[in-house]
Every structure is written in structure tokens, then in C-alpha cells.
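re: that complex we talked abt at group meeting.

here r the seqs, copy pasted straight from the sheet so there may be weird spacing, ignore it
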Amino acid sequence: MQTHRKMNTNAFLLAALALVAGPPANASPGEGDALAIRAEKLHVGDGTIIENGIVVFENGKITEVGKGAPVPKGVVLIEHAGHLSAGLIALREQAGAVGESNDGTRAVMPEAQLGYAYNPRHSQVQELLREGITSFVIAPRPGSLVGGRCSVVKVGTEVIRANAFLSICTGSNGLTSNRFPTSLQGSQAELERRFAWPKGEFLAAVKGDLAVMLDGGVTRAETQHAIAFARRHGLKGMLVGSTRLGELAPKIRAAGLGVAISNFSPNTGRRVVEGAVALSKADVPFGFALGAPYNHPANLRLTAAACIRAGLKPGVAMKALTSTAATLAGVGDQVGSVQVGLAADLVLWSGDPTDPGSQVMAVYVDGDEVFQAEDDDENGDD
Amino acid sequence: MILTPMLQAACLTLCLPTFQQAPADGAEVKAERASAAAEVTVQPAAPAAADLRIHAGRVYTGTGEILKNALIEVRDGKISSLRPGRSAPEGVLQVKAVTAGMIDLSARLNTGFSSVEQVTEVQPHLDVAGSVNLYDKRFARLARTGVTTILINPLDRNVIGGRGVAVKTHGPMEIEARRLSSRAILRGAIGTEPSSANHPAFGRPTDFFSRRPTTRMGVEWEWRKAFFDAVAATRLPEKDFPGSAELRAALAGERTLMIQAWTTQDIRTAVYLDEEMQREGFGDLDLVIDAAAEAWKEPAILVRNGTSVVLPPHSPGGRVGDGAFFSWNTAKLLVDEGLTVCLSAHGAGPGPSSLGSQAGFAMRGGLTFDQALASVTSAPAALLGMADRLGAVAEGMDADLALWSGRPFASTSRVVGVVIDGAVVVDPR
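got the structure back, here u go
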């Protein structure tokens, strides 16, 4: 960066640099332009991998996928010596909405919409692209009983599903010491009251029209309570925040809930990753929650890799990062798979995406190249 | 493994007297006799063998009786038979002494600040059950001390904290399945604790805790206001508030009101509240004072109101919570006055603070063994309204047992085994 700043003061050098750098090697298509990419391994998103698969996209949508997919005349075919997958999806984030995603004045705000807290141009959002994350669920920070309606947003662009989940904290994460409720029995009494004669968003949740994002709290008892709460009121959606998933997997399955697995760190022990294996065995659909921007975007893939290390099948991990997460967020018909008709949100990897050593080479969102890894040069980050 | 000789023995001891008394069903009896005589280890079509059998050198039944060399049989979580003067059959669980499992009405296994709703000081309508964490390791620690039933109350930061929940210290991991059908107990506090976090609004920015009560007097004001408003609400709807029905139920004697009051002035306040309710014609509270450390100072106040007490754990210097002084002969003095007295360890695990040790300390202060045993078994069982199930070793009672290495409560004895609802939670073998 120092070098760049110096150059900025020198118009001559700057111009020289532009000449040397020239246009990028892989030409980025403009709006509406078609492009085709052939990758050594193409992860479709349903668990299958196509060797030397070709994906063709135009006007932001995928038009052809397959090993010998026809490339229309005049369309540039990029050869990628690596893996290609759909953009990754993180399930519970505050990137681009820090300080705006939890209104502490009221414990229950079902009408609030997180999409309005989202600033797509925020640097925290742009950071996600560097790790291949192209969509995420923007959710309130814990601290409210009912924090609002979570939205699915695309990195750097717009909200693609405004009312994805109603965020509910049934456990101690919904408590604060300076307004109602301060206690678990208080929060439970309030939630039971809201769901006993449901109106508005609560009625939609009971009817199954609005999924819930249930923060099950910290302890096993709280998580168990959250599952029972969902069953009692027939709620659909996913459980977040809990680390006690392994021992509760059958109950989660019986309740028909999905799960967003919390960010793994070596300090949290094996519970999170072994929980993922147990969920997989119990046939519970799950994705990953990164917790951006409080956790580095790389942690999404590192958590998946840690789960694989604990015994999770790489194909299941890859689905959890893409298609299962999209289905849980209710946007499986828009993103999360490399399939005809879906958005051309694509990531080119140097190797297997679930291998922590693999790098993101390029990212496309709606067919536009929005990120490209810099070649090794002396001006790179040091 | 162990089961086979146990089954065999059970078959012998159970079946033989049965068919001596009732030889009507000839064929079936013959078949049984044949199998018994041949000593074949098959399961006869006789009454099912006991789930658990314990042979005890002494069983302190809790009714003043001591049964020597008694054989206790447990079936479906209940004591199915209790017979003294038996030799120990092979493979049976053998211990020196057995008492009923102990009961602590002030176990304090709540989840701290998340167990008390502080949005207002009076929350009679909330139930602490919603905040109980049954996975808390303190339950297992408590069970190891021979405590088999506890009452969990909200943290005493509210004037009226809400309804407590009675549970066994071992059992199903869902609170609704674990909850005992005890008498409903409403919990509140008098003293410095309900006002400890609050402060007046002046001189600093107002916040959530800029509110009443900030003094003992304010706490008392809240109590009286709550009850007067609850009564007034039957005529004036604008006086109504959440939980008023609970307070009216307490006035009607349908709830026990358990108030924490350490010092004599707070004990007075509690009794005066009850007496005021009676004078006003509002009702008569079924009052229990918890942590009544200074009850020894003015026992007459408790006697005239018929108030029961739960005593706090003994402290070596005598100084306990809220600055109260707890004399070691308090239990003795109150029992002699005819009051119902329960002891509590406030949830202490194994060691010198456990409930069994508290009973020993109370004996050091003058209680007889039977009185000490009652104060940790039958007396709290009666306050829970569960004397028909808990607090004694007798046929038909819940199989909640404390197994001791020697004479219970003696400083040289300890709890070596625990049975809760027929399940061996701590196995002495």
C-alpha cells in the first residue's frame, strides 16, 4: 500500500503502471454478455462433481451446465485449471449492518426487517467475496426476544429475499439486564403469550408461511427448550447459536428443523464439529453460520474443513456450504447450485473448496466478475 | 450377571409364601413349585421379581421406628415391601443404614439472574420451571449427598419472584416430566436482597434500576401494595396486574407463600403481613419463612401465627446472610415450641456443608436424632403436600433412599448410595 500511495503522487509513474498492468487476462463480461467456463472439477451443488464440466451463463443466469455443454458461437470459453462451485452461503451474519441490526429499545419487534440494516457497499461485505461467499442471511445480533425478520442478501448487490426468517431468541441470548425480559421464565411467558393468539408475523410463523431462526441459547437445557417450543407451535425453520447439537440431533430431526452450525474455533472444542457429523447421520439439513464481521470470512470454509476432519463427508459439507444453505434460507430456486436457470454466482477455486489450502481465484455474482485474485507481485499485501 | 441370582432369590422369597397362602390355582402352583424345587433359573409365571432389593443393618423409617436387618424391595419406583429380621440374600445390595432420601426446600439450584424477572418487583405469575437447567452438574452433586427432592425458587432479587418448582434430583431431563405435583409454592423475599440493585433516580442518569424498593421499608411497601391491589382488583379492574390471581389464591390458602427473611425484623415483617391480611379479612396466608436464621430471637411471633420455617446452613461463627446471627440451637428451640422446622444446605454438594451434615449440626445444637431426621425428610415432605409419597421409608412410598456407611448424620458416616424413584443413582458397590 505504501508503494501505491507514493505512486499516486506521481502521475507519470501511475500512467506507466496502467500501461504495464493492462487489461485482466480473463476478460470480464459486461452486463448481458455471455461467458463460458470449463473447470477441471465442477461442483454442481447436489453432491455430484462433473469432470471438465462447462458452465455457460448469460444475463446473469446459468444457461448450460455439463461435461460437453454447447458453447454458443462467439462466447469466450475460459479454461480454469481448478475447481468451480456455486458461491458459498453463510446463514447468520451482521456484515454491513453492525450497530444497526439489534434495536435494544423493544424486546419484540417482529415487523423490523434486517434488509434495511444492510449496506451492500460496506468493506465488511466486500471482504466476504475474497473467501467465495456470495450470499448470506442477515440476522439481528442476539439480545432481543424477537429481533425482526432476517433477509437473504447478495454480496455487494441487493436483498433477494426480504422475509426469510423471523428471528426468535428463546434462550438467555434474548435477555438483557435493563429491560423486559431479564429472565428465562419471563421470556418464555412472553413468547407463549405471543404464540397463544398469534397475529401478524407470529400467525405467519404458526401457519408455516414464515420460517423462524431460533437462537437456542447456550446450554443444552435451553436448546432442548427451543426445540420443544418449535414443536409446540409447529414452527418451521432453523436452529442457530447452539453448540449442543450432537446429543439433540434426533430431537431436531423429529421437530423438522434445520440447523446453522456455529463458527468453529479450536477453543470451542470438538462439540461443534462432532455435532455436524451427528446431524448428518440423523439426516438433519444444515448449513454454516459464519458470524461476520466478528469472525474472519475464511472461517466458513475452515469450519466445514474441521467438520470433515471429524468425519463429515466432504460432499455433505459442500452441500452445507451451498445448496442446503440456500434451501434452508428459502432461496434454493435462485442460488446455491450450478444449475440452469439459477443465478450465475460462481467461484473459481485453485483446488477443492473444502480443502483449507485452496484459494479463491475469481468470483462471479449474477454473471459479473466481482473479485479476482491478484497475481503474486511485489505490490501485494504484506 | 448379578441379575440371575437376584431373580432366583426373588423367586424363592416371593413365591413360596404366596402359594402357601393361596393354593387354589393348582396347576400353576405346581409348575412353580417344581421350578423352585429344581432351582432352575427360569422366570416363573409368578409376581415379577423386584427391580431392586436392598438389605440394611438398620432402616430409619422416619416414623420413629428402627427396623433391623431389613430387606427393602423396590418395584416400579416404589417401595413394594419392607420386612425386618431378614438375612441378606446373595447378590443383594447391602448397606449399614437406610433413611428416606433427604429433601431440601431451599436448594437454590436456579440459574442466577436468568431465573428472576426483574422488569417489575412483583412477578407472582411466573414459574421458575422455565429457567431450570436440569443438565446443571449441581443436581448430580446434590444427589450424591443423599438429597433426592428439592424445591427450586427464583433468585431472591424480586420482592415476589414467582412460583417455585419441586423436582427430584435425578430423573427425566425435561422439566415438565420432572416436576412433582407438589403443593404450589409462591416465593418472595424480605430484607436487603430485593432492593440491593436498585437506587433512587436523582443524582445520576435514570436507568432500569432507578426504582423502588431501595430499602427494607420499600420492600414491605411493595408486599402490602401487591396484596391490597390484588384484592382491590376484584372490584376495580384498573388495579389489576399480572399475577394478581396468584396472590388471591395465596390469600385463600391455595398456595404456600415462602418468604426469605434472615433477620428477626424481616421475620416480623412477614408475620405482620399475614396478620394484617387476616385483620383486613383478605384471607390467611399459608406462610413458610425460608432462611429464618434469627427465628430463635422471637419464636413467639412464629408460634402465634403457626408459621413454619426452613433454616439456612449453619456457619461456624454463626453469622449468615443479611447480617443475621444463626444460633446452633435454633432448630432445637423451634421444634420444642412445636413449630415445623426444615433444614437446608442451600444446595451444597458433598462435604461438611451437605444437608446430612446440617442435620448433624442441629443435633449438636440439641435436636434428637428423630427430630433431625424429620427436619430433612418428613417435615419438608409435608410442606410440599407430598407426605403420602416422600419423606419416609414405608411400603407404597417413592423409592427415594439414602444409603449410609453408618449411623446417619454422625460425623463419621457419609452417604454411600442413593436411590431415586427406584433407580440406583449412586451405587455403593
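couple things i noticed - Residues 3-21 of chain B form the longest helix (19 residues). Chain B has twelve helices and 16 strands.
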